[in-house]
Design brief:
The complex is a heterotrimer of chains A (about 290), B (about 325) and C (about 280). Chain A is built from 11 helices and no strands. With about 290 residues, chain A is an all-alpha fold. The relative contact order of chain A is 0.15. The longest helix of chain B has about 40 residues. Chain B starts with a helix and ends with a helix. In chain B, about 80% of the residues lie in helices and about 0% in strands. In chain C, strand 9 and strand 10 form a beta hairpin. With about 280 residues, chain C is of the alpha/beta class. The chains are: A mainly alpha (about 290), B mainly alpha (about 325), C alpha/beta (about 280). Chains in contact: A-B, A-C, B-C. Chains A and C meet through loops of A and loops of C.
């Protein structure tokens, strides 16, 4: 079947499938997902697989990668590979859930603003403009430091700070679509407000919102890593990729593996999401916006 | 043009008001003890606590606290919990360093962003474009602190190069030239690292904007006139692409000023980012409120400047 | 001696590579144009007329455009074989264009003056006083107060004035052929008539060849000597304007002509194009 004749969703999928980089990134994300999910369970159930991430062994401290410790050990003799596996779910969970929170808030605010217009719109948009002025990382750091660094707090704070982009997008969709013929027609036919919103406006806005969401995940992952690194992420002894680096920086010159490997993990995860998100964006672009 | 400026200024004032409310709100909504010492510390007498509460107006209604905080910020009454000095003073003495860092980063981001972005739009769809695109995302995906440490390991270990702070210690007989070169050196690395993500983002904005502009009718006219490709690109297309690019740059300001926190901490650079991190560690509320407020206002000013730049670039704005 | 063919198109085919596969926009068309003559290419959107026009100076981006067959000869030279430098020299200098939407066809951030000057400096470097030349041409197309107008930005001009400015820009390079792609479609009806009159006058004054592309068969009488009717990439009728209009052979041409409302007719409803002939082909 010709691509232009397929339904919108299948069209996007077909185009995405042609994008080699996107497909590789997607595969990487799936692997990451599986690993994180598995170890989310293993970690919270304190199952010491492949080795106990919290088992200290001072005789084997600060060892470079070797047959026993594939990625080396830290200053307390803990196996780096195991710690990294057990910490993987944190980065991913924060990434996904924080974006979900910000998506929710953004869609609601944007929809209200775009649909009702006038002074509601005005006030909400001024608030959005104001929030967007804040240096995001510092604001998040401040809030997390004051609320206490727990995974829930981090997720909520990141979500509360990042919704503005989505809100603007949704509002723009509402503004353009509000005046289009088919919304007027729907209204003329007597459809009620929520129906109009859900059945006509949101589906159109879906694609750019979804792309924004996917592209927001790596930002959340990097923010979590940054917070962890500064000591305001999920607290030890739970390993996160960020706090492994934070602990490791004291041994900077002696144990490069403590910095290189967790950082590589953060980098590759974020990169996979960025590439997949961009491939998705390219696949979803309508004919007039091509390239 | 004048009306345009006045309108923007008025909107900005409203935004400053909103910003101040948000800054203040973060602090007050946090649970836990406002005292820098433990709530149940037996050594602190009740009267000391009372004095503390009085000084920081902690028993007054919230809107009064807001008013005291904001007024105190500007009159210098708002003092740091840590050393009792006016918050404004502590911030202004470190502000120039951060501004230098950010201006340097913005310059790097803008120049390289333009270069790479325009080139990408020229070769759009080719393997060069795809590789540059992937590199751009790689730059965005790099955790700043990670690459900072990698570089530190690399440079200090292999090249024995001083990197921390703003000056190298131990330079004998510094003259103006070596001093400024030294200062530039210390500024350059953190600024470049800070700019990494922004260069990538900027190049994407430029590329997207250029590609959109190149689809316009007047580009077809320019080509139909027989103009060489470079003129079409740099004279006709580029200037029309600048508007979203300037907006994009404005959007990068919060990330730059916020990212400075990590960079300044790692490189022991004496700017407000480092001040902010220390304030967070010490739970120095007045400083935190002030920092959030001031940095947000700085971003606002930056955006205002960007809007003024529109007028320079696009004559249609001038005649509104 | 009879004027030679300025332009010849021999069995030209143009194909586009799309995500759904190749698309033949133009199929095996042939036509010719003498110096100073005028040709109308008439057809609906999608007929391939604009694609043909752009191909005359290599303005079609390729990829995705391909030329599976045929050739275009301008003054005896093959356009498809021309080097980029030669193509650029012809663009604007020998074959000039005006397009449908004058409001978006001029660069909004530069003055009229700067845009016309650019063209003159490129194709006629011998001109010493470029400003005077610009004034001359703006006058020629009927723009009043040209000294002041030329320092305006495009958005400060009305639609009609913008199109006149575009014509001035095209003519200032003294091309031997002007290709006008739907020049009046985006303008008010009253302005349309004015612009068409201008084109007629300028053609006569400068003995310039003209290719007028339009979907509106009503405007070509009096302006174009010959007419080529295109439908879905093919030329279905080609000949002298008066002959074709009076005695159309192809059903599509007949349908097009039938759509034109005639003064004094007693028809109550406007006609649409009748495609029933397609089944018979």
């Amino acid at each position: 079947m010709k691509i232009s004749e397929q339904s919108p969703v299948r069209r996007v999928l077909s185009r995405f499938r042609r994008n080699r980089i996107g497909m590789i990134a997607l595969a990487a994300i799936l692997v990451l997902f599986v690993v994180a999910a598995v170890f989310a369970f293993l970690s919270t159930a304190h199952v010491p697989f492949p080795t106990d991430p919290n088992a200290t062994n001072l005789e084997r401290k600060l060892l470079p990668p070797n047959p026993l410790n594939w990625l080396g050990t830290d200053n307390l003799g803990r196996d780096l590979f195991s710690r990294m596996l057990h910490g993987s779910y944190i980065s991913l969970t924060v990434g996904f859930v924080a974006v979900f929170v910000s998506l929710f808030i953004g869609v609601v605010v944007g929809a209200v603003s775009g649909y009702f217009g006038r002074w509601v719109d005005n006030i909400l948009m001024r608030a959005v403009d104001a929030i967007m002025c804040f240096p995001t990382f510092f604001l998040i750091l401040t809030a997390v430091a004051l609320l206490g660094p727990s995974m829930l707090n981090i997720i909520v704070v990141i979500g509360l700070v990042s919704w503005t982009g989505t809100a603007r997008l949704v509002r723009a969709e509402f503004l353009t679509l509000r005046e289009t013929e088919y919304v007027r027609a729907a209204r003329a036919l007597g459809q009620r407000t929520p129906a109009i919103i859900f059945r006509h406006i949101l589906p159109n806005a879906f694609a750019p919102i979804f792309v924004t969401a996917v592209l927001g995940i790596p930002a959340a992952i990097l923010t979590e890593a940054g917070l962890s690194f500064l000591g305001f992420g999920v607290q030890p002894p739970q390993a996160t990729w960020g706090n492994i680096i934070a602990d490791g920086k004291t041994y900077l010159l002696d144990a490069w593996w403590l910095i290189v490997f967790p950082g590589l993990a953060i980098f590759l995860s974020a990169l996979a999401f960025y590439l997949a998100g961009d491939a998705l964006r390219q696949a979803a672009e309508t004919r007039t916006e091509r390239k | 043009m004048i009306t345009f400026i006045i309108r923007r200024l008025l909107t900005s004032l409203v935004l400053v008001f909103f910003i101040s409310i948000i800054s203040f709100f973060i602090i007050t909504l946090t649970p836990g003890s406002p005292y820098p010492w433990g709530e149940l510390n037996p050594k602190i007498s009740e009267s000391v606590k009372q004095n503390f509460r009085k000084q920081f107006h902690l028993d007054e209604p919230i809107w009064k606290q807001y008013w005291f905080n904001m007024r105190g910020l500007f009159t210098g009454e708002l003092r740091s919990i840590k050393d009792g000095r006016p918050v404004l003073e502590r911030i202004t003495e470190r502000l120039p360093a951060t501004l230098a860092l950010n201006i340097c980063a913005i310059t790097i981001a803008l120049s390289f962003g333009l270069l790479v972005g325009v080139y990408s739009s020229r070769v759009a769809g080719s393997w060069q474009d795809t590789s540059l695109s992937t590199v751009a995302f790689a730059l965005l995906a790099i955790p700043e602190f990670w690459v900072a440490y990698l570089l530190i390991i690399g440079l200090t270990e292999w090249f024995a190069v001083p990197l921390m702070g703003t000056v190298s210690h131990g330079i004998i007989f510094p003259n103006a030239l070596t001093s400024s070169l030294d200062w530039l050196w210390h500024l350059g690395l953190p600024a470049t690292l800070l700019a990494l993500g922004s260069v990538a983002a900027q190049s994407r904005y430029v590329r997207a904007s250029m590609l959109e502009t190149l689809r316009e009718d007047y580009i077809r006219t320019a080509r139909a006139k027989g103009l060489p490709a470079e003129i079409v690109l740099y004279h006709h297309a580029l200037r029309n692409s600048l508007r979203p690019v300037i907006t994009g740059l404005g959007g990068l300001l919060p990330a730059l000023i916020g990212g400075a926190v990590i960079m300044e901490t790692i490189f022991a650079y004496p700017g407000i980012g480092r001040l902010g991190y220390q304030a967070v560690l010490e739970r120095d509320y007045p400083t935190l409120v002030a920092l959030n407020f001031i940095t947000a206002v700085l971003v606002l000013l930056g955006n205002l400047l960007a809007d003024l730049l529109y007028a320079v670039v696009d004559p249609r704005v001038r005649l509104e | 001696m009879a004027p030679s063919n300025l332009l010849e198109i021999h069995n030209l085919s143009i194909r586009f590579r799309t995500e759904d596969g190749p698309f033949d926009a133009v199929k095996n068309i042939s036509l010719s144009l003498k110096e100073g003559a005028s040709l109308a290419i008439v057809g609906e959107s999608g007929s391939g007329k604009s694609v043909t026009a752009l191909s005359l100076t290599g303005l079609l981006p390729s990829p995705p455009a391909e030329f599976p067959g045929g050739d275009i000869l301008f003054k005896g030279e093959s356009v498809l074989a021309m080097k980029p430098g030669r193509l650029r020299a012809i663009r604007g200098g020998e074959i000039a264009y005006i397009f449908q939407e004058p409001s978006t066809s001029l660069n909004p951030v530069y003055t009229i003056r700067s845009q016309i000057a650019e063209a003159i400096r490129l194709h006629r470097p011998e001109v010493k006083d470029v400003d005077a030349e610009i004034v001359h041409w703006l006058n020629a197309v009927g723009i009043v107060n040209p000294e002041k107008r030329m320092r305006d930005y495009p958005h400060q001009l009305s639609g009609g004035m913008q199109q006149r400015a575009m014509i001035a820009m095209a003519l200032s390079c003294r091309p031997s052929l002007l290709v006008a792609d739907e020049p009046t479609t985006a303008l008010d009806v009253t302005i349309q008539a004015q612009i068409l009159e201008e084109l007629k006058r300028l053609r006569a004054e400068f003995n310039m060849a003209l290719i007028l592309i339009t979907h509106n068969i009503a405007i070509i009488r009096g302006l174009c000597d010959r007419i080529a009717v295109m439908f879905r990439g093919e030329i279905v009728e080609y000949g002298d304007t008066n002959d074709v209009l009076r005695n159309p052979q192809h059903p599509y041409t007949k349908a097009l002509i039938a759509c034109v409302p005639k003064l004094g007719s007693k028809e109550k409803r406007l006609k649409t194009i009748d495609y029933s002939w397609l089944e018979k082909v």
